[in-house]
Specification:
311 residues, two-stranded antiparallel sheet
Length: 311
């Protein structure tokens, strides 16, 4: 199969580095990276977008007017939605209920008062992971080891003086608690793709569209962009905290990193889906991911990576 076409190493052309993805790297990611695992949001840990908005008002404001924030839920009213639901054995009247798997990608599951409720559209935690609970990342991710702070400005000032050892411990703790940090391009891209690929044979057979043109950098630069952390008035091209946290980092370098991460995430998830499908006939999910596998390898092989900033 096509994976072996990526085993050409790295070659130099006029000072530019042509990144031809290696199979060794792909198999290493398949075997060891939690970033490429199917991510499940724990409804009991979801605190809701309002909790995030207390510090991230600008980010929340941008997200709420995006298609993911306000239109994802409306797609469940599409004329074809009942047909898609029927293919999964879901009654038309249950499409928007907690019984429906449709709401896992078109909404956000949240456990409130012992009851499962569905928040309309994709929320902060749909992408960044459930934040609450006793061991949740909501508190941990903003604990800079200097006590409570009343405002975002105070928190950011505390962050500036955070010791390197504390930073490393905090990042590890948030990751363990299930946080998909904005700087982790692999986890974010994988989280996007697990909905956008539509990894369900019955749905694809029923005609449900799959995002076959998904490209992480292009999509991240679109209406979902909400990089306001260091400046609430400027929506930065790439995560502003990442950009400011290391020497030599540039927006261009970050985009190149995101491109490679996005293509590898697509490749690995597609390979995993391909391993589990029952058919690869034309028009099936197996056929669709075969095309994705070929496309991802071709994209990475053809990419000219002339400025890859430190990660």
């Amino acid at each position: 199969m096509s994976c072996f076409r990526c085993c050409h190493g790295v070659s130099s052309h006029g000072g530019n580095i042509k990144f031809a993805g290696s199979c060794a790297a792909v198999w290493l990611l398949l075997a060891s990276s939690t970033g490429f695992s199917q991510q499940q949001i724990d409804a009991a840990k979801v605190v809701g977008r309002e909790a995030c908005g207390k510090c991230h008002a600008a980010e929340l404001g941008a997200w709420q007017v995006s298609k993911h924030g306000k239109n994802a839920w409306d797609l469940l009213d599409h004329p074809k939605a009942p047909d898609f639901a029927k293919s999964l054995g879901i009654a038309a009247g249950d499409i928007k209920s907690e019984k429906s798997v449709c709401t896992k990608c078109h909404g956000t599951h949240q456990q409130t008062g012992g009851k499962l409720v569905i928040a309309k559209g994709n929320s902060c935690e749909s992408c960044h992971g459930g934040a609450g609970g006793d061991q949740g990342w909501l508190t941990v991710h903003s604990d800079y080891g200097k006590g409570a702070a009343g405002t975002l400005a105070e928190l950011l000032k505390q962050r500036e003086g955070e010791p390197a050892a504390h930073l490393a411990t905090r990042k590890a703790a948030t990751s363990k608690a299930g946080m998909n940090r904005a700087e982790d391009a692999v986890k974010i891209a994988s989280n996007c793709l697990q909905c956008h690929i539509v990894p369900n044979e019955k749905l694809i057979a029923a005609g449900h569209p799959s995002s076959d043109k998904f490209e992480f950098v292009e999509w991240a630069q679109g209406e979902v962009r909400h990089n306001f952390l260091l400046d609430s008035k400027e929506n930065a091209e790439v995560p502003s905290l990442w950009l400011a946290s290391g020497k030599g980092r540039t927006a261009k370098g970050r985009k190149q990193l995101m491109f490679v991460a996005g293509q590898l995430a697509d490749l690995v998830l597609s390979l995993r889906i391909r391993a589990g499908v029952t058919s690869a006939k034309r028009g099936t999910l197996g056929d669709l991911v075969n095309d994705r596998i070929d496309d991802a390898i071709d994209e990475v092989e053809d990419a000219e990576i002339d400025e890859l900033a430190p990660v």
